[in-house]
Amino acid sequence: QVQLVESGGGLVQAGGSLRLSCAASGSILSIYVMGWHRQAPGKQRELVATITSGGRTNYADSVKDRFTISRDNAKNTVSLQMNSLKFEDTAVYYCNADTTTFQPIGRSNYWGRGTQVTVSS
């Protein structure tokens, strides 16, 4: 089993910044892709950004040039630096990790419980 715990959410004014962090723990053998998704009220969950173990990144068009994803492979952590926040960035942000585990043996995509980001206009 793998546990993902997010932190860093909160309330910020439009134009401000927040940094989200996520730590993975448990019976981890390796983590391939880590990422952030978000879900606003009444909307489907959408991809925000992903990063591979080799550092290759991918961003949603709506956050390019404003958000930066990074990870520490040794610590099994992933972060999301969010700058120039907009009202429409308001959502619950979820961390996920495509992980191979030794107990149980296998590979699954694990999710955190989410952290609320609220941007006031």
Mind explaining what this structure looks like?
0% of the residues lie in helices and 64% in strands. The chain is mostly beta strands. The strands form 2 sheets. Strands 2, 4, 5, 6, 9, 10 and 11 form a 7-stranded mixed β-sheet that branches. Strands 1-3-8-7 form a 4-stranded antiparallel β-sheet, with no helix packed on it. A hairpin with a 4-residue loop joins strand 7 and strand 8. The model has no long low-confidence stretch (mean pLDDT 96).
**C-alpha Rg (nearest Å):** 14 Å
Mean pLDDT: 96
The best one-word shape is elongated
The total count of strands amounts to 11
Taken in chain order, the helices and strands follow as EEEEEEEEEEE
C-alpha termini separation: 40 Å
Q: Which residues form runs of ≥5 with pLDDT under 50?
A: none
Structural class: mainly beta
Discrete helix count: 0
Q: In what range is the share of β-strand residues?
A: over 45%
Helicity level, as a percent range? under 10%
Task: Characterize the main sheet.
Answer: 7 strands, mixed
Properties at a glance:
64% strand; 7-stranded mixed sheet; 4-stranded antiparallel sheet; 121 residues; mainly beta
Write the layout of secondary structure elements.
Layout: E1 2-7, E2 10-13, E3 18-26, E4 28-39, E5 46-51, E6 57-59, E7 67-72, E8 77-82, E9 91-102, E10 105-111, E11 115-120
Parallel strand pairs: 2-11
Antiparallel strand pairs: 1-3, 3-8, 4-5, 4-9, 5-6, 7-8, 9-10, 9-11
